[in-house]
Amino acid sequence: MAGEIKTRYGDAELEAFRTLIKNKIQEAEKQLALIESAYRNDSNNGTDDTSPTFKAFDEGSEVMSKETSSQLAIRQEKFIRDLKNALIRIENKTYGICRVTKKLINPERLKLVPHATLSIEAKNLQ
Predict the structure, then answer these.
(1) Total-model pTM
(2) Per-residue model confidence (pLDDT) at position 1
(3) Number of domains in the chain
(4) Which of 36, 65, 75, 98 is deepest in the core (most CB within 10 A)?
(5) CATH code for the domain of 109
(6) Would 84 be classed as within a structural domain?
(7) What confidence tens digit (pLDDT) does each residue in 46-66 have?
(8) Half-sphere exposure of 48 (CA within 13 A, CB side)
(9) Which of 115, 112, 58 is nearest to 85 (CA)?
(10) Domain range spanning residue 99?
(11) Which residues, given as ranges, of the chain have pLDDT below 50?
């Protein structure tokens, strides 16, 4: 066992990653709710009685803001989906295994990017 190479993370390690990922999902869902709430908030910010020029600028920035919010929401939804997929890999005990090199992904990388499916080595090959 001394020279044995680990091919997967142990159950205790997987449980620690599960907790980390569940916390990240909660945070991400809160942020998504804020983004969606900002997107739906179409108040006119009190520009009804201001000059038409300012109102045009305000409407333009509102459209841009909604576009940005929409893009942020899409990215956040993808992030949540990726995290949920990581939970499935934990269930399957395939979490933390690089899909290219089949080696274990560095645990420090997984703490920073818990939904990672590539090791740094494989990422650099791309």
Answers:
(1) 0.77
(2) 45
(3) 1
(4) 98
(5) 1.20.120.910
(6) yes
(7) 444 455 555 555 555 566 677
(8) 3
(9) 115
(10) 11-125
(11) 1, 43-44, 46-49
HEC string of 23-89?
HHHHHHHHHHHHHHHHHHCCCCCCCCCCCHHHHHHHHHHHHHHHHHHHHHHHHHHHHHHHHHHHHHH
Rounded to 10 deg, the angle between the 11-40 and 52-91 helix axes is 160
Q: Closest by alpha carbon to 118, among 81, 89, 84? A: 89
Place of tokens 């990653």: 17
Q: Both tokens of residue 27?
A: 């945070």
Neighbours of 33 (CB within 10 A): 12
Q: Is 46 left (phi over 0), alpha (psi -120 to 50) or beta?
A: left
Residues 37-75 as b or e (16 or more Cβ within 10 Å = b): eebeeeeeeebeeeeeeeeeeeeeebeeeeeebeebbee
Report the DSSP beta bridge partners of residue 104: 97
